[in-house]
Amino acid sequence: MTDQNGASVLMTRLLTWASLFACAILGAMAVYTSGIGLLDATLQRAGGFALALIVGVAASRTKRNQTELTSATSAFHVILDVILIVAGLWSIWSFHFVQTQMETALYDITHTDAIPAIAGLCVFLELSRRLWGWGLFCVGAFAVLYLLFGQDLPGILEHSGFSLKEVSEGLWYNTNKGVFGSITNIVLSTVFIFIVFGALLEGTGAGDTLLKFAFLLTRRTRGGPAHAAILASSMFGTMSGSTVANIVGTGTFTIPMIKKRGFSPTFAGGIEATASSGGQIMPPIMGAAALVMADLTGVGYLNVIVAALIPALLYYFSLFAAVTVEARRQGIEVQPLTMDDKITKVDVINSILFAGPIAAVVISLLMGLSTSAAGFYAVVVLLVLSVINPEVRANPKRVWDSFISGSRSGATLLIAIAAIGILVGSLDTTGLGLKLANVIASVRGDSLFSALLVAMMGALILGMGMPTLPAYLIIILVMGPAIQALGLSMLTAHMFVFYYGVASSLTPPVAIAAYAAAPIAGANPLMTSLMAFRLGMAKFIIPFIFAFYPTLLIVEQFDLLTFVWIFTRTLLCIWLFSSALSAYDRGKLTWLEVGLRFIAAFSLLALNPMIYLPALVLSVALILWDQKRRPTSANGMPT
Questions:
Q1: Of 85, 161, 379, 485, which sees the most CB atoms within 10 A?
Q2: Model-wide pTM > 0.70
Q3: Which residues, including other chains, have CB under 8 Å from residue 102's CB and lie 6 or more apart?
Q4: Are 455 and 492 in contact (CB under 8 A)?
Q5: 154 within some domain
């Protein structure tokens, strides 16, 4: 072994142990601040980022060790990692020092203070690139460069210009916006405990039990494992907070079974991708986005999850419909339940691991406790109940490993939040968000639909290649003011952009959900992304429905009769849309029938009764005609 390789191995070992220690401290901080006591806000933010810095460098080094082939590159990366850690800790210390001085005396940021601030921005942008890819890096880098050189840009992009000192003040030393701003505070004080909670749920065996129950509930459907994947992913995804983690967690088991049932590899990968991405819109946790949305909108966590429920159920109905139609098209029949799929006594007992903590969250919120306190009590209940799982009793280290895994996920999320904070500070300093809102207002004219269409396209582009929470934050920061200017309520605007933040993971060419599912399915990534896009098409329609009919959100202008009426029409629309996309219902549809179904589906959502009432008659006629010409056999299947 050369000296350079020896140094690289030593560095990796040191960082591994330092990362483990950092994760333990971060997790302990989350537990303490959510249910026991408070830390000094400046110390919490500075300490959180210092620990996340260690974890981020260690995680990126572990990923890179797979490709380090030469001693020269190993030595270079050792030096680079040391520089990142030293520069990062120096910049974080500078933030803490400046904030402490501001709290105790009159203190003005100097040109000297700008140097560590700029170093810190570079460090966290580089870690964002390593851990989250070029997309997030480019967003943050653009924000910094825009502040520095935007005065030379044309049109609405032009601003008055900012010095290095002003850039550092806006992006680094600002506790309202910027890297250490309010979003970081939300993640550290509220979101982090739920990330740990999700990891503990999975590690204590709740995830395996969810899969078994999903297979049992869908055993009498044609789709079988495909329907089970949808059901399991809706429950698993709400707690995982990551589409890719959801795909890996459930897809490695469900995708092979979907293929075994007779579905194509492309369809198997596509349905898992769409189901897993949908977990992020399913209450009660919604991949931690509901917690952030509640803080940003001020409407309350319970209101957010109630508002999200009906649209999420409609989306999953669309996936069930798509699988049913595809199973009919391929002639796949119901198959008997195997012994491995049957629920055992242990599974029934383990189901408490999921039901108990979720009940703790809901009860805590109904009692008026804070969202973070609800997460704390959910973790406590889960840890107490975990002993009922024989596998946990046989290997208690599973709980510790899950705790560390959750803390590591939270730390890497903090790195992404640093890049988001840079964007927030840039938009706030330059007022670019308001300028974009004015542009969209001028483009839309008097049409709400055209304005929402522009907002949708912008949201899909901004969220492309991003994980759920960063995607949502970027989109709402850039597009939020413009959408609220259309006359939508704050909650409706946030829900609208959140849906497209999630949908961006299915949108070619950067469909990260499909690219994660394709290797497991053994399918072509591009074809899988196109399939996922087709299957998840309802996710692109539902936000328009609740934007025009806010009664679907229940907490917004609720009227029971209107709610039932639009809910029924939406169900019918989804079925017609799914069958038209597959050109199949009980049998193959003609091109005329496909065209009529598309027209009827979209017309059902019109605001004018003179349009949707004839569309309703046409929809019922199309379905009845299809049933009449293809009667069912004795077993209930189309002949």
A1: 379
A2: yes
A3: none
A4: no
A5: no
Q: How far apart are CA 59 and CA 44, in angstroms?
A: 22
Cβ atoms of residues 532 and 269 within 8 Å? yes
Domain-located, residue 158: no
Q: Which of 410, 412, 406 is nearest to 129 (CA)?
A: 412
Instruction: Look at the chain and report how many structural domains it folds into.
Output: 3
Closest CA to 498 of 296, 246, 321: 296
Residue type, 116: P
Domain shared by 135 and 247, yes or no: no
Q: Are residues 337 and 401 in the same domain?
A: yes
Query: Quick check: is 270 in a domain?
Result: yes
Q: Do the beta carbons of residue 409 and residue 248 sit within 8 Å?
A: no
Tracing tokens 């690219």 back to the chain, one arrives at: 515
Asked if residue 466 is part of any domain, the answer here is no
Indicate the SS3 state at residue 588: strand
In the three-class reduction of DSSP (H, G, I as helix; E, B as strand; rest coil), residue 147 is classed as helix
The last residue of a domain, from among 87, 108, 142: 142
Please write the tens of the pLDDT for every residue from 580-613.
988 888 888 999 999 999 999 999 999 999 999 9
**Tokens 């510790």 correspond to what residue?**
400
Q: Which residue has the tokens 């459930």?
A: 250
Quote the percentage of the chain above a pLDDT of 70: 89
> What's the DSSP call for residue 36?
T
Nearest CA-CA partner of 605 in 575, 579, 570, 562: 570
638 has which bridge partners?
A: 632
**Rounded CA separation 432/187 (Å):** 25
Residue 576 is predicted with a pLDDT of: 93
Q: Which two tokens stand for residue 618?
A: 């046409």
Retrieve residue 447's tokens: 């049409």
